[in-house]
Specification:
By secondary structure, this protein is an alpha+beta fold. The protein folds into 3 domains: 47 residues, Ubiquitin-associated (UBA) domain (Helicase, Ruva Protein, domain 3, Orthogonal Bundle), CATH 1.10.8.10; 111 residues, 2-Layer Sandwich (Tetrahydropterin Synthase, Chain A); 40 residues, no CATH class. A 3-stranded antiparallel beta sheet has the order 1-2-5. A hairpin with a 2-residue loop joins strand 3 and strand 4. Helix 1 packs across helix 2, helix 5 runs antiparallel to helix 8 and helix 5 packs antiparallel against helix 9. It is globular and about 70 Å long. 24% of the residues are buried.
Length: 214
């Protein structure tokens, strides 16, 4: 069937893919928009995987301050300065900064968790199961599951994205990487909360931020 310019334009707006990629996808799917979107998503995600090993040394240091009480600095790397200055990349960085302010992760991913912290958390979960009456091998599996779930609360990339809990921060970054066609790496972040570590009135600033950005 003939592929119209309007159909190509609509598909490009829906996926962010190039014009020729959109046209080819529509040709392959006989003009079926839903199937074309799915096809492009699969191709884009496959391309993201191939780019994962490429050097990402450009990017930006983003920041977000909430009411002068919570501040975040975040370094995210990409492959070129051009993409690093682009609107899509800058918006992603700001959104992740706001997520960090709201959810307060401790590490970028589980590779940063100190062995002593991981061992202590496993010890806690194992102690919780002591009186369960379950065999040791079953307890080990349950503890493994608890550890995996715990990582989704403390590791930025594994956390559910505060603006869309159906996807993780890693999923969100992958979606943006598929659009900008470059490798993206979250390198490091720092989160500051006013009076942190000092005795003060207990206000749940993080919950307030989450309510505003959710």
């Amino acid at each position: 069937m003939a592929i119209t310019a309007t159909a190509v334009k609509d598909l490009r707006e829906a996926t962010g893919a190039g014009m020729m990629d959109c046209k080819r996808a529509l040709v392959e799917t006989d003009g079926d928009m839903a199937k074309a979107i799915e096809l492009l998503q699969k191709k884009n995600l496959a391309a993201v995987g191939k780019r994962a090993g490429r050097i990402a040394a450009e990017g930006t240091v983003g920041s977000y301050i909430h009411d002068g009480r919570i501040g975040v600095l975040l370094e995210v790397n990409c492959e070129t300065d051009f993409v690093g200055r682009g609107d899509a990349f800058q918006e992603m960085v700001r959104n992740i900064c706001m997520h960090i302010a709201a959810v307060n992760p401790q590490w970028v991913d589980d590779s940063e968790i100190p062995e002593a912290v991981l061992a202590k958390q496993r010890e806690i979960f194992t102690a919780q199961m002591e009186n369960s009456g379950k065999p040791a091998n079953i307890i080990d599996r349950i503890v493994d599951g608890k550890i995996a779930k715990w990582k989704t609360t403390v590791c930025l990339l594994d956390q559910p994205y505060v603006r869309d809990s159906d996807k993780s921060i890693k999923d969100y970054i992958t979606e943006i990487a598929a659009v900008i066609k470059e490798n993206i790496k979250v390198r490091r972040f720092a989160r500051f909360e006013l009076g942190e570590g000092l005795e003060k009135r207990q206000d749940d600033f993080a919950a307030e931020v989450a309510a505003q950005v959710g």
